[in-house]
Design goal:
- This protein is mainly alpha-helical.
- It has one domain.
- It is built from 13 helices and no strands.
- The chain is globular and about 55 Å long.
Amino acid sequence: MPFPISKKSRIAIAFALVYFVWGSTYSAIYIAGLHLAPPLVGALRSLGSTFIILIICAVRRTSLRVPFATAWRLVLVGVLLMTVNNLLLIWGETKVASGLSALVIALIPIMVAVIETVLPGGERLNLLGWLGTLLGVAGMFVLLWPALHRAGNASDRRSLLGFLILVVAALAFAVGSILSRRFHFRVDTFVATAWEIGAAGVCNLTIATAGGCFRTAHWTRSGLLAVLYLSTFGSVIGLSAYTYLLQHVPVTKVSTYAFVNPVIAVLIGIALFHEHLAAAELTGMFLILISVATVILSRTRTAPLPSDPLLNVPIEE
């Protein structure tokens, strides 16, 4: 008889998976982007994840049918999260170090909080939350200061463009998360995920084909392994662990991934790619992490959770 695993142990394992797996996806994205164009990476990852989820649905004998009104909403959210966000993230990582990319993406909770504040029925930030938001803006400025200070240099202009791309990627994910929350999907978790990722996969494949990405692709073992890691660990395993945590742990604790993942990404980037952070970038990193933690923990009123919590999570990390 197998040794039973306690609930506390399962929660600890789930946290470890979310922290490490999602933190490591930035390195995998960087490796994949070295060999394959962003649309092709996004297409292979999305379609691979969809295939795995479809197998799960088949084993569970779960129907994929959903009403038309639900279908187009799922497609919209999927395209925002796994096409716009994912492709821009991959593109941005070709210009910015993986660790710094993770720091920019960590601003998503702040973007969500600010947008929710101005929307009817959204969560309202208290004074501490606004201070955290301002601290995040300051942290981003400090993070960008080395490139801004030497904007005449070609590599620094490239970095600034990369940061701008990543900010738009984060904004796309924030909008997709808010829409998924307000749509109140009432469908099975795996069915909803299959529609979202599948729609994004088709969109990504269309972009990759139209852009001639297959002709320019370098089919290397490291690139394909990186895509395989993103499909299995980054999407399926990471999402499953996150969903389990949402069901058993307060959302404020689960949200700590937003300021733990960047630390993991930075450490992996230093170990694998010998990435170096200047003093200003280190300062910006700590300011951003503190700001994200402050905003997450400062909510004064909790908005109702969506019917399907999986639809409110970062699918492209």
